[in-house]
What we know:
Chain A is an all-alpha fold. Chain A is about 70% helix and about 0% strand.
Amino acid sequence: MVASELEVVRSTEVVTAAPVRTGSRAAGLVRGGLLLAAGIAVIYIGLVPMGHVTGIIKVPVVLAGIALTYMGVDGLAKAWWGPQVETAFWVSVFWLVALILAAIFADFLPLGEAVDTTKTITIPGNTPPDLFSAHPLGTNNFSLDLLARSIYAARVSLLTAGLAVVLSMLIGVPIGMYAGYYRGRLDRIVSVFNDSFLAFPALIVLIALASVLGVPTSVPEAIIKEGVALALIGIPTMIRLARANTLVFAQREFVVASRAMGARDRRILSREILPNVLLPLVSLALIIIAVLIVAEGSLAFLGLGLQPPQPSWGNMIAEGTITVVQDYPFIPLVPGVFMFLTVFSFNRIGERARQRWDPRQAKI
Amino acid sequence: MIRRTVLSRILLVIPVLFLVSLGTFFLVSLIPGSPEAEVLGPNASAQDYARVREELGFNEPVLQRYFHWLGNTLHGDLGNNLVPPIQRVSTMLLRALPINLELAILALLMAFLIAIPAAMWSAYRPGGRFDRLVSASTFGVISVPSFLAGLLLILLFAVTWPIFPLGQWARPTEEGWITNLHHAFLPALTLALAEAAVFTRLLRSDMMSTLQEDYILAARAKGMPTRHILFREALRPSSFSLITLAGISVGRLIGGTIIVEQVFTLPGLGSVVVTAAQKHDYRVVQGAVLLIALIYVLVNLFVDVGYAYLDPRIRRGRV
């Protein structure tokens, strides 16, 4: 699953010609500023509790506001730095840095209660988002603060996916490199195992593992169990990618030269090939993180990941059942937006890194 | 030539299926502690523990257990489930499976319906306004998890603007196909969106290179209308990798239906598997894993073989 998605992302290089805007920088700044202001205004109108906009219409209004805001930022950036600036990339970097900092320092931030329902008895539940209140993004059914929960949930998602990617690189890269470097029987055996493993749809593997290992109830337990389970998904992909990249480099002149100078296989692998293979793999690892975050979310959404009241984006979205979502659409949408932005950011940054570092891409 | 290609491809399935069966079987051995206690909890009767042990075959040596299980499985007998009410696993799975198959097939069709025109038009005018819109939105859509997309579709088309029913399923045998499709539309669309985005990106890039070919220029010089050039001349040679991808995506779609049916509370394979996983009903989980992996392997085989027939270059062994 992961591999096929990567192939797709790779094979479809999207060449987007930047639109050539006529007019001066000042005009661009004004246009961007107006759009930005309009976007913020629309979001505000959408989120104001005492309804200019009532109930369910809020969702499309807020979404439109976010789109307008983005267009505004994009316009400003293009006017200021020129039309080649990749706004989406820089917004992604900004989002990830902000999210990671917030997740690290969550304990010191002035957030509402995220987990302990005994402390929230006096707070009204299902409060809709109001940016200028104590609960800027609202509260859930148990009066837990959605902003705080989303930030604590980021710890689970990022650490789980991060652990899984590190594990799958540690295990997958050496195996893939050996298979790609020595070829022959080793390569064939590795490939058959790999293909058989890829025959299981990833989600099914995760469900089966969750049923066997038991569902996690605490955050460290979730990170370790799900991290290992997700690593099982990531390893075959890493093996394939490492193997493919090693095949490319093993034929190159500098490897031949190194061998002619008497270098052993181990030295060639670690000094000549590894540094070249690692960069493209790191860029792909970013895209794999995005896939794994979705996989972790899916598992939690199905009720087989971290158990509530401990927050994870998946189980927070699952709180928005069909009945809840009709009255309180923000309950699943707040973690949903966090998750979307994070997945999008990893995809965007990974894509950019891949364009720069992937040798097979560079040749095209 | 083609017969040999097809034959070797079919032979390749055998070790894969063998490893799949091993993986599924030894899944149960990964359970920490004793499985019967995991299944029934600490308070069941001695007979119940004995029944579960017997059903899981823990009274036999491991190899014998495996071949016993394999033999039964090959006869379509997946055993009984472990947690009451006791039923045959194959019955449980086969009753739920049609929902997932229908959703997966519908989603695939919808994805093609969305992706082909979008990709063709953006490949026809690369860098144009439509192309940029398509590129940006496909990139965005790929990053939306299906459960989120499903919720948004529910909010937009079942709550705000209630044109589709919410959270029910209509079996075509009971309520007719039209009602059935009406119920299946939103879940299928949820799955289709992400696939369509992926398909669009792939087909667009293949289409762009096809449109550079000389025969397209010749067709245009002869004055053929754009629609003819795009659909009749360019689509088929551009669609080979799309077909491969569609085959691969069947596995993802089956996984996807499990999530989407939870969003829409449909009684499919997902609800069976997830409930079983929560109750540690390993027999059901095992059966479902095996069934889905089997479908996935067979569909991929079918696609590879069909591909060999479709593309003359592969048929003649030239690629």
